[in-house]
Amino acid sequence: MTPTLVRRHRPSPTSPEARARDWAEIQERMLVPLYEAVYDRLEAGPGTRLLSLGCGSGLALLMAAARGASVSGVDQDGRRLALARERLLPDGAPETGRRLGLGGPEAVHDPTGPAFNLITAFDPLYCAGGGTRGLAQTLARATALATPGTPVVLAGWGPQERCAASGALRVAARLADPMCAPARWRPSGRDDLEDLARTAGLTPDGSGRVSCPYGYADLPSAVRGMLSTGAFDTAIRATDEDQVTKELVEALHPYQRRDGTVWMPNVFRYLIARVR
C-alpha cells in the first residue's frame, strides 16, 4: 500500500532529517487503524476533496487517494512534507488531484477549483497539548475553504488508562523545561476535542474510538519511533538526548516481550464536527 521511501545516505540518528524519516518508516503507520475507521465512516472515495492539516509524510493522504479521493495536505515540517512528496508525487511533477504545501491551508487552496468537503487533523499531539489555540485558528481558516456541512475530523488520545504510550509521554512532560509548557504532553481531557471544535466555530456531530497499538520490532526501533513524534523535542532541549533516551528506554521496557518486540496497546478518540 505504501511505496517504500528511497534510501539515500542516512543522516545522523539525532538529526531532524533522520527523525522525519523515522516518523515515515516507523511511527506513522501506527495510526493506520484511525485513518481507516474515519474514511470508512465518512465513505471517503471518488468525489471526496480532502484537506489534511498536519499531513506529515503523507500516509493518510496516500490511503485516501487509493480510495479515489482528491487530496491536499499541509504541514509545518518541511522535512516530513518532502517525504510526502516522495510518496504522492514520486516523479516530481504535479499529479491531478494531489496538492501539498508548507504552512497553512492557503498553501494548497485553488481559488478556481471546488471547495473541500472533508478536513482532517489526525495528529493526536496537537489535541492533547498546549497547541490547541493555534490549531483552532488553523481550523477556522481551513473551514473557510470548505462547503457548509463539511465534516472536520479531530483526533486525540483516549483514556489515559487505556493508552500504554502515556507512560513514555510522561517522561517527556517531566523532563521538559517548565517554561516551555505549551510544548509539553498532557493527558487528553474528556471534552478536549469538543472544546477545540467549538473554539474553531464547528458543531460536534459524533465521535468514535479506535484501537491503535504501537508495535515495534525491537527496543531501539521503539525509541526511534517515539522520538520521531516530536513529543520529546522540548525535553531534549531542556536536558540532553542521552538522558531522555535512557528514561524512555526504562518506560518502554515493561512492554518488551520475550521475542524482543515492543507492544503498547493504545486507544485513540476522534470527533466529527461540521462546518456551519
Characteristic key phrases:
276 residues; alpha/beta
Q: What would you note in describing this structure?
A:
It is built from eleven helices and nine strands. It has helices at 16-27, 32-42, 59-66, 78-88, 124-128, 132-143, 165-175, 192-199, 219-227, 233-238, 241-252, and strands at 49-53, 70-75, 98-102, 118-121, 151-157, 202-211, 214-216, 262-264, 267-275. It has a seven-stranded mixed beta sheet, sandwiched between helices. The protein is globular and about 55 Å long. The relative contact order is 0.16. Residues 6-12 have low confidence and may be disordered.
Structure summarized in a few sentences:
38% of the residues lie in helices and 19% in strands. The protein has 276 residues and is of the alpha/beta class.
The string of secondary-structure elements, in order, is HHEHEHEEHHEHHEEHHHEE
Please count the beta strands (DSSP E, at least 2 residues each): 9
Distance between the termini: 35 Å
**Estimated helix fraction:** 25-40%
Strand content: 15-25%
Summarize the helices and strands and which ones pair or pack.
Blueprint: H1 16-27, H2 32-42, E1 49-53, H3 59-66, E2 70-75, H4 78-88, E3 98-102, E4 118-121, H5 124-128, H6 132-143, E5 151-157, H7 165-175, H8 192-199, E6 202-211, E7 214-216, H9 219-227, H10 233-238, H11 241-252, E8 262-264, E9 267-275
